[in-house]
Automatic annotation (TrEMBL):
Enzyme class: transferase
Histidine kinase domain ranges (all copies): 163-372
The keyword Phosphoprotein is assigned to this record: yes
Protein name: histidine kinase
Organism: Tichowtungia aerotolerans
Reactions performed catalytically: ATP + protein L-histidine = ADP + protein N-phospho-L-histidine
UniProt-listed Enzyme Commission number(s): 2.7.13.3
Lineage per the UniProt record: Bacteria, Pseudomonadati, Kiritimatiellota, Tichowtungiia, Tichowtungiales
UniProt GO MF annotations: ATP binding; phosphorelay sensor kinase activity
Keywords for this protein: ATP-binding, Kinase, Nucleotide-binding, Phosphoprotein, Transferase, Two-component regulatory system
Pfam families associated with the record: HATPase_c, HisKA
Length: 383
């Protein structure tokens, strides 16, 4: 075999070895991304660790995968100007990059990158973009399915609640009426009077739960008018202001005077504010500061109700808007307050979110659209 043939044979063998390394790398990445239990960070770390083996000087090569500011490396930190970089595109948006280089070698010892290596890096970046897209699409679909399940559950509970409320309201009214008549009996023994008082209190508590059930089951669409939200909050203080004072809770207002009027049902929004404030008061048995803030966020107005109360455990947060779920004592809540708030806010095409840290307090944020077509015809009367 002559020298020319040997060179051609050696070059072909080298290309074949490089091709095998590239295919092995892509296969390993496919294996990593196909693990159902693997999280996205685990997949990206696996991609970074699989890449160096496909390069000429694999022992000296290092890879870096960056996505949304998070970084995953296979070895030594790769300087920005050393190596090859390909962007990670997800739905037309650059979300990060994949880079490979030789950070441990002096600049004059870095081998030239092969055309095949450049193609491989581009393919890996494309595959990472597809992996991210598939994961995010699956997560969004699951969120939508969960939202549909929640809506279906609320509708079922609403129908059940309406029936239960109707059936219980009448007998409870009779119990309360007879208890009040008995309380007027002259010369009633003290123990009997105390027992009747307990019957009255328990019946009133039950009727309060029934009232919440009826509000929850009604799911009345908003009756819209122009609403000055700051004024609505100030006027609502008459409902819970005395309760704040009695509980040692200091109200701190930060109302943006420049927020515009919105189209909304003022009675329903008053119930939202009242429920959130009462929840905050109940979360501060030793008193504290309660902040009520309004602001504008683009095409939305934002309400923040923030307390310094006992907070909520992280594992309970996903259930807070579920009907009948409550963290309060048996006689302190029906578990419908936040469900009603959630229903009113979503009925106004708004959003509600909650953040809480145990022993540090809770912050509830409500956002309502400034411009929304009125549901029952807009009234120019100001609320």
């Amino acid at each position: 075999m002559n020298t020319t043939s040997q060179k051609k044979s050696g070059s072909a063998a080298h290309k074949l070895r490089e091709r095998v390394k590239e295919l092995s790398c892509l296969y390993e990445i496919a294996q990593i991304s196909g693990r159902p239990a693997a999280s996205l960070p685990e997949i990206l770390q696996g991609v970074a660790e699989a890449l160096p083996a496909a390069w000429q000087r694999s022992k000296n090569a290092s890879a870096r995968v960056m996505l949304d500011g998070a970084e995953f490396c296979s070895g030594a930190m790769l300087p920005p100007d050393r190596g090859r970089i390909e962007p990670i595109m997800v739905r037309g948006e650059c979300r990060g990059e994949v880079a490979v280089g030789y950070p441990s070698l002096p600049p004059d010892s870095v081998p030239s990158f092969l055309e095949e290596e450049d193609r491989l890096l581009g393919e890996v970046a494309r595959q990472v973009g597809l992996i991210v897209d598939r994961r995010e699409t699956a997560a969004e679909q699951e969120r939508l399915r969960a939202k549909l399940r929640h809506a279906d559950r609320l509708a079922t509970i609403g129908r059940l609640a309406a029936g239960v409320a109707h059936e219980l309201n009448e007998p409870l009214g009779g119990i309360l009426g007879f208890a009040q008549l008995l309380a007027k009996t002259p010369d009633l023994p003290d123990q009997a009077r105390a027992d009747i008082s307990k019957i009255e209190a328990a019946t009133l508590h039950a009727r309060d739960i029934i009232r919440h059930l009826m509000v929850f089951a009604r799911q009345t669409p908003p009756c819209d008018k122009r609403v000055d939200f700051n004024r609505l909050i100030r006027d609502s203080e008459a409902i819970w202001g005395a309760r704040c004072a009695a509980a040692g809770v200091q109200l701190v207002y930060a109302l943006d005077p420049d927020i515009p009027e919105i189209i909304a049902d003022d009675r329903q929004l008053r119930q939202v504010v009242t429920n959130l404030v009462v929840n905050a008061i109940q979360a501060m048995p030793n008193g504290g500061s309660l902040k009520i803030e309004t602001s504008r966020n683009g095409t939305w107005i934002r309400l923040l109700v923030k307390d310094e109360g006992i907070g909520i455990a992280p594992e309970l947060l996903p259930r807070l808007f579920d009907p009948f779920f409550t963290t309060k004592d048996v006689n302190e809540g029906s578990g419908l307050g936040l469900s009603i708030v959630h229903g009113i806010v979503t009925g106004h095409e708004g959003t509600i979110s909650l953040e809480s840290t145990p022993d540090c307090g809770t912050a509830v944020t409500v956002q309502l659209p400034i411009h929304r077509p009125p549901t029952h015809g807009e009234s120019h009367e100001q609320a």
